[in-house]
Amino acid sequence: MSERFGCNAFLGEDIPEFSAAKPRVSKDHLSIEVEWAERSDLIVMFLGSAGTISEITAFAMTQSINPKLLVFNDERYRSASSFLTQGPLRLLQPTQKHYYANADSILDVEVLRAVDIALSQAWYRKKPESLTTIREANYYDAMTLANVCALYPVRYGELREHLPWPERRLLSALKKLVANGLLAKVNNTYVPAMPLSEQPIGMSFRTTIARARARAMSSLLQDEQFRERYSRIQNKLRGVGRFRTA
Fewest Cβ atoms closer than 10 Å to its Cβ: which of 124, 126, 165, 237? Predict the structure, then answer.
């Protein structure tokens, strides 16, 4: 996670106060974990041991921690009548709970996709880079703009693959971004309506998008169809939004 997302990830077992070199601690371990969870931006949990049952109960009941939880559980227990399903898991929103079919699929694409989305949401909460020209801009607007700027020219179907939200979320974001002059639709693809340097977003967000664009292009330009599409779009961008030339 540290290499892929650039975040400072750590395991609960790695919390310094739990070190074997420190046989005595000033507080019980669960209280220490709660304190560390409060300082974290995202808590990813795979339920399975007695320890995780204690942790999920404490975390779910702590108001400042609950929204930061992303919990994975075995599919076999989705409908089971148990303390977990009737207790702490009921305190979570549906988007915070995910299930995997068996141990072999614990890191399948759906699990990784859920972590991807949760990390981007945590990043957005931490650094809410407002889209100043859009009234009531939200996470979905920001991520849609970022994906188009990083992958353009990009078709709607490709955006659906990259942004696995409810379709109405994506359609609403695209409509809002086009209406506000930040994106344009050219040849059935979505493109930025202005250079990245002029987009109404913060500098750190701009830098993140530019890096993503550079990584994506090294792969995309190996696709002949993308190169042809990119060449056609670049020629037409001169007449779009702030790319307009005399």
Answer: 126
